[in-house]
Amino acid sequence: MSGVNLLLGAAVFAASLLAADNPPPRPDPGKKLVSEICSFCHGLAKLKGQSYTREQWSDVIKGMVSEGAPVTDEEFSLILDYLAKNFGPSEQGPSKQGKEEK
Ligand code: HEC
Prior knowledge:
By secondary structure, the protein is mostly helical. The chain has 4 helices and no strands. Heme C (HEC) is lined by residues 34, 37-38, 40-42, 46-47, 50, 60-61, 64, 67-69, 71, 79, 83.
């Protein structure tokens, strides 16, 4: 019986060794959270093309949380970092500043 536990332990140990040796491509934990959590009710297409400031994103995420998005405090800041960095107005986002016509 304890042999099973030993085997399991060895497997977990081997898996963690493998993981350490060969880290999966995971550039940004926020990205993973966004693709998991923010696609729950609507597609991620909702985010594409948005260019909000960090403050605006904070409001958007708060709004999503009040809609029922399961976001912890820790996840909130990771998501905010990711969105502000990748969908912010200063980045080379798809949407231009709107006001500049000439
Ligand atoms: C519990 C359901 C739910 C989850 C989870 C959710 N949303 Fe939403 N989201 C909505 C609803 C409802 C709307 C408003 C309806 C619409 O515009 O289609 C919306 C609209 C939006 C919009 C467009 C409206 C706006 O204010 O610009 C954005 C951007 C957005 N969500 C971002 C996010 C992000 C980022 C996350 C992850 C943190 C997320 N959503 C997770 C329900 C959700």
